[in-house]
């Protein structure tokens, strides 16, 4: 059996071609490679276009296209209807288009439910493409999915699904990640739940075939199909760590679009907004909308900086970093095992040796030069061989008693080696973090993932698979703890995985566990980058980029009533009660956002009702604040509010807030029952001179 598996893997890696040559319209460039097999079925093939600018030293981002056709028809050759391949290639972005097994072929093969075949094929093809990253000059950290209709649904399923990589699998393709940098899709279905479709669309016109039932039987069969429905519905997988998504509709929203109804997108967008995820929805009536919006979004996003929740692209060089902010005399303490220890001297009077020669020494040196006036005190409390339980045993002496201002923890490799159970690892880790927070509620904390590479004694396949699998079980725990304790989380394993693509694993970790000097420098640079990003210094450069006045926008992309200028968002801040902001909400949350000229503390606001239609008054809303326009903090949430007592009347509200934010956002979640929201005025306490962009 093992031999057959290995043979199959070798065949896949060689890219067997066993399908008819594709036929594209003249407007689509000829693929670099055609019908490359990623599986054994005749439909499991893909075409690849390499961007002319792609090279081994400058790999290209990639757009991963999944065709539509209800998973019952269609092929990769219809890519032109979704994205402009030529424009992507000219922008330096490579492209892949895939075929996959239809649900009819899945049914014939006895696959249950049938939708499992096309969706699993999409995941497998994505893993196959990542396995070709070095050979095809692909930047594996910047892969975006796109598609229309069922292809859009498949793309969103990949975007929101947890990583399906299997680190311990003998198949190297199965060990590849399925996570995306972003997605941009057209007219997708976001849920395969018949109850949700009935609630959203008032009917069920799609999805039964995915589970081998008719649409008429779909709702009545829901109770027995529900585990599968949840498994294959994008909406069911949305979580706070998902990548940004953009969804587009080219047709008039007033038409009966059935399975392509924008309500699919509006309800997904509402769910994303609850988790502060980026989800843009645009359509033909949207001001400035043009054909191939998905292409423009993909180019802008894949070639731009990482957006919130996008899988992080690690620049291995990471030469430049801003300076972190420290109060004078801050204590910066590092603790962990041998990777931190690195033969540190136990005599702290010996100032040349007491920090050892790990990343601790390098960080201390760099910040000592960059911030001499801060007079920072650095301490290394790593001890070779320590597990999390041993850290816990010495925590009072080596951390609590030291009263650090910034604490960095790197632990876990010995827990893996000694087969400590993940549950025990988490409990002990949580105990020491809780004690640290109790000691200093304002303590700055940095958590690093445990990491391994396939080098040294771990080159043995069995040893490697076991060690990597066990290490990967601890990484989600560190991520969870970082979130729970508001710590900076550095994904060190991802960092070394990326580095190992440019040089062999042995170049970074000599024995698969302990870094060489360049490995410690790699940790150093990314520690500096992460800490500086979280606690940056205010500089003249950042101050001069502030706008000269407050700027008002509608991030949710809503339009004014009949697109009339007299109902635009700027009418909400013009000081004239005779005008009003009146927008159609399309049954989805609507947003009012202001970017201030400089950070300000705001703890109050007021609404003035418009001249008519009380049902347009707000019923539920929330206010959020942000320093960067990406990461948001909830400031106020009001529910079940009554209509204004009279027209053109003013209501004021206050909330607790002591932090100065640059951005303030109002999200309107419900009104009194009308299809519009309207306000005569919206005011933030003490903020004047607001303009539209």
| Coarse morphology | globular
Biggest beta sheet attributes? 8 strands, mixed
Main-sheet strand order equals 1-2-4-3-5-6-7-8
Distance between the termini: 64 Å
Approximate strand percentage: 15-25%
Could you estimate the helical fraction of the residues in percent?
Answer: 25-40%
Content-based structural category = alpha/beta
Query: What is the residue-averaged pLDDT?
Result: 87
Total strand segments: 24
Q: Show unreliable segments.
A: 1-17, 308-320, 539-548
Radius of gyration: 27 Å
Helix count from the secondary structure assignment? 21
What does this structure look like?
- There is one protein chain.
- With 693 residues, the protein is α/β, with parallel strands linked by helices.
- The protein has 21 helices and 24 strands.
- An 8-stranded mixed beta sheet has the order 1-2-4-3-5-6-7-8, with helices on both faces. It has a 6-stranded mixed beta sheet with strand order 19-18-21-16-14-24, with no helix packed on it. The chain has a 5-stranded parallel beta sheet with strand order 10-9-11-12-13, sandwiched between helices.
- The chain is globular and about 75 Å long.
- It starts with a helix and ends with a strand.
- The N terminus is likely disordered.
């Amino acid at each position: 059996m093992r031999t057959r598996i290995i043979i199959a893997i070798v065949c896949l890696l060689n890219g067997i071609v066993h399908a008819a040559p594709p036929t594209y319209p003249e407007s689509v460039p000829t693929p670099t490679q055609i019908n490359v097999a990623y599986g054994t079925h005749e439909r499991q093939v893909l075409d690849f276009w390499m961007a002319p600018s792609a090279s081994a030293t400058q790999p290209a981002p990639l757009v991963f296209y999944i065709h539509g056709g209800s998973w019952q028809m269609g092929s990769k050759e219809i890519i032109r209807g979704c994205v402009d391949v030529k424009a992507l290639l000219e922008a330096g972005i490579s492209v892949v288009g895939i075929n996959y097994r239809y649900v009819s072929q899945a049914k014939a093969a006895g696959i249950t439910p049938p939708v499992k075949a096309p969706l699993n094929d999409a995941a497998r093809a994505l893993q196959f493409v990542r396995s070709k990253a070095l050979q095809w000059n692909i930047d594996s950290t910047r892969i975006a999915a796109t598609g229309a209709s069922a292809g859009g649904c498949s793309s969103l399923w990949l975007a929101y699904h947890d990583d399906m990589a299997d680190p311990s699998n003998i198949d190297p393709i199965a060990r590849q990640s399925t996570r995306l940098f972003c997605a941009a899709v057209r007219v997708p279905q976001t849920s395969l739940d018949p109850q949700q479709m009935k609630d959203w669309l008032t009917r069920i016109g799609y999805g039964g075939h995915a589970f081998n039932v008719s649409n008429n039987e779909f709702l009545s069969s829901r109770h027995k199909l529900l585990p599968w429905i949840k498994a294959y519905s994008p909406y069911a997988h949305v979580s706070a760590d998902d990548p940004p998504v953009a969804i587009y509709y080219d047709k008039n929203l007033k038409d009966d679009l059935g399975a392509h109804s924008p309500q699919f997108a509006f309800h997904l967008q509402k769910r994303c907004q609850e988790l502060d995820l980026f989800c843009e929805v645009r359509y033909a009536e949207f001001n400035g909308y043009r054909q191939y919006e998905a292409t423009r979004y993909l180019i802008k996003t894949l070639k731009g900086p990482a957006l919130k929740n996008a899988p992080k692209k690690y620049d291995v060089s990471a030469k430049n970093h801003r300076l972190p902010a420290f109060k004078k005399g801050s204590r910066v303490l590092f603790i962990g095992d041998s990777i931190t220890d690195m033969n540190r001297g136990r005599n702290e009077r010996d100032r040349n040796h007491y920090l050892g020669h790990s990343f601790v020494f390098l960080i201390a040196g760099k910040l000592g030069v960059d911030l001499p006036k801060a007079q920072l005190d650095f301490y290394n409390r790593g001890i070779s061989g320590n597990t999390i339980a041993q850290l816990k045993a010495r925590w009072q002496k080596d951390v609590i008693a030291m009263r650090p201002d910034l604490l960095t923890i790197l632990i876990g490799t010995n827990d893996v080696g000694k087969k400590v159970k993940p549950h025990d690892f988490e409990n002990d880790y949580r105990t020491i973090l809780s004690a640290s927070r109790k000691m200093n509620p304002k303590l700055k904390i940095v958590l690093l993932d445990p990491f391994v590479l396939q080098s040294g004694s771990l080159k043995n396949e069995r040893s490697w698979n076991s060690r990597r699998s066990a290490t990967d079980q601890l990484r989600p725990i560190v991520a969870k703890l970082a979130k729970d304790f508001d710590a900076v989380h550095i994904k060190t394993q991802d960092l070394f995985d990326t580095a190992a693509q440019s040089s062999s694993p042995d170049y970074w970790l000599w024995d698969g566990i302990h870094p060489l000097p360049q490995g410690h420098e790699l940790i150093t640079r990314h520690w500096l980058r992460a800490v500086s990003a979280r606690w940056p210094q205010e500089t003249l450069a950042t101050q001069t980029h502030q706008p000269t006045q407050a700027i008002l926008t509608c991030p949710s992309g809503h339009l004014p009533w009949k697109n009339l200028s007299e109902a635009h968002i700027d009418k909400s801040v013009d000081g004239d009660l005779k005008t009003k902001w009146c927008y159609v909400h399309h049954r989805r949350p609507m947003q009012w956002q202001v970017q201030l000229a400089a950070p300000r503390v705001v703890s109050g606001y007021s609404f003035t009702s418009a001249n008519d239609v009380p049902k347009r008054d707000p019923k539920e809303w929330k206010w959020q604040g942000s320093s960067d326009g990406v990461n948001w903090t909830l400031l106020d949430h009001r529910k079940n509010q009554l209509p204004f007592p009279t027209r053109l009347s003013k209501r004021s509200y206050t909330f607790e807030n002591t932090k100065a934010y640059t951005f303030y956002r109002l999200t309107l979640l419900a009104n009194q029952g009308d299809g519009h929201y309207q306000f005569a005025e919206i005011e933030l306490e003490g903020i004047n001179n607001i303009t539209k962009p």
